[in-house]
Amino acid sequence: MNSTKNNLSMFNFATLWFGASISVAEILTGGMLASLGFKMGVLAIILGHLAGTTILVLGGIIGTEERIPALVSTRISFGQYGSYLFSVLNVLQLLGWTAVMIIVGARSVNHITKTLWSFDNLTVWSLMIGILIMFWLWLGKDSGWKMANNIAVVLLFCLTIFLSIIIFGNHELFTREGTGTISFGNAVEFAVVMPLSWLPLISDYTRFAKTKRGSAWGSWLGYFIGSSWMFIIGLGAAIVASDADPTAMLLAANLGIVALGIIVLATVTTTFLDAYSAGVSFLNIFPKLKEKTVALVMTGIGTGLAIVVNIEQYEVFLYAIGSVFAPLFAILLTDYFLLKRKKIQPELLVNWGTLLLCTVGTALYYQFIKFDFVMGSTIPVMMIISILHSITWRLTAKWKYAKKSVQA
């Protein structure tokens, strides 16, 4: 890696992840916690984000230290072919997120234009948002992108202030009971899984960090503050207005055109990361392709999915992400930080022992969902898998498929 590319500072990471966390999807997810009431809902949000963001940043540290993308780092524990499997799964989840973000943003924008100008065409807005994401990708990680991202974050920060004033100005926020049936454990799980969904992406960016400290603290503060804030805004909106979608609040405040721009900006800055990292993950399998070109293609596919597929099942989607990536990164983080196995073995193709343990972790995850554990599913599953891996890795050391060494 050329050291001249390692130019992202703590401030860059803070704005990157703060901007990424400000999205309608995060607000809507926070709204799903309304049945807990405001105080218990905020407690679940903070606990989940403390755990989830810390796990996220640990994954990012690997990228900074080794200067490799997130999915390439999984070769440390799972081998080359094992990383291909997770790359495919990650590309699928990122295409899913790209489609979800585009359709959620398009619906909000369409609601605004329908109210203001009677223009009602969801397909057009999905295409427009997809094109804007492609433009953001085209800017790349140069100084132009950093300046555009910083300006976007300032504008989005103003949005969070405005929405917060509206919600916290309602005196019924702390007394009114919300609607829904979500448990405290499931609420914590959603707050953990949201940052967990970025785990297969974070090293795609932290590998370009100036310093490990800067990337770690910038990423942690940016995402923790932004995502927790979005969840709390959604929670408050769902309690006081029975609707977590911020579009209605923006329209009620006569911010028609401004609201349009804000929703589009929030959607683009977040979905850009999904599309870019889908391209990076794809390059783990086909390294000769161009990163930016693949990311643009992924955006096109995600836009097409947003138009033709009705993607609504947030809960099922979030659980699917947690079930795969919680045990995967429990094993990788254990290898890297506890067992000090930090280097990729070029000859290792598949580690059957870790793949088997990852499968066990996925099965455990869905069992913990049924148990409705007070701390959700991700945290206990990662702890159990980490302990099991620490105990069994020597016993399964020979359960591998490796390249045969060639004698000179």
- How many distinct domains? 1
| Rounded radius of gyration (Å) | 21 Å
The CATH homologous superfamily corresponds to Hydantoin permease
What class, by secondary structure content? mainly alpha
Walk across the major sheet and give the strand order: 1-2
Dominant shape: globular
CATH class: Mainly Alpha
Q: Which architecture name does CATH use?
A: Orthogonal Bundle
Q: What distance separates the N and C termini?
A: 29 Å
Main beta-sheet strand count, sense and barrel state: 2 strands, antiparallel
Number of helices: 16
Beta content comes to under 5%
Mean pLDDT: 85
**Which spans have pLDDT < 50 for at least 5 consecutive residues?**
none
Output the helix-strand order: HHHHHHHHHHHHHHEHHE
User: In percent, how helical is the residue content?
Assistant: over 70%
Keywords: Membrane, Transmembrane, Transmembrane helix
Protein name: Hydroxymethylpyrimidine transporter CytX
Main location: membrane
Family: Belongs to the purine-cytosine permease (2.A.39) family.
Show the helix and strand layout.
Layout: H1 10-21, H2 24-31, H3 38-66, H4 70-73, H5 75-117, H6 122-139, H7 143-168, H8 184-196, H9 199-206, H10 212-241, H11 246-252, H12 256-285, H13 291-308, H14 314-338, E1 348-351, H15 352-371, H16 378-392, E2 400-402
Antiparallel strand pairs: 1-2
Task: Looking at this protein, list some descriptive labels.
2% strand; transmembrane helix; 2 strands; Hydantoin permease; two-stranded antiparallel ribbon; mainly alpha; 16 helices; 408 residues; globular
Any overview of this molecule?
With 408 residues, this protein is mainly alpha-helical. The protein has one domain: Orthogonal Bundle (Hydantoin permease). 75% of the residues lie in helices and 2% in strands. The chain contains 16 helices and 2 strands. The protein has a two-stranded antiparallel ribbon with strand order 1-2. α7 packs across α12 and α8 packs across α14. It is globular, with a radius of gyration of 21 Å. 53% of the residues are buried. The model has no long low-confidence stretch (mean pLDDT 85).
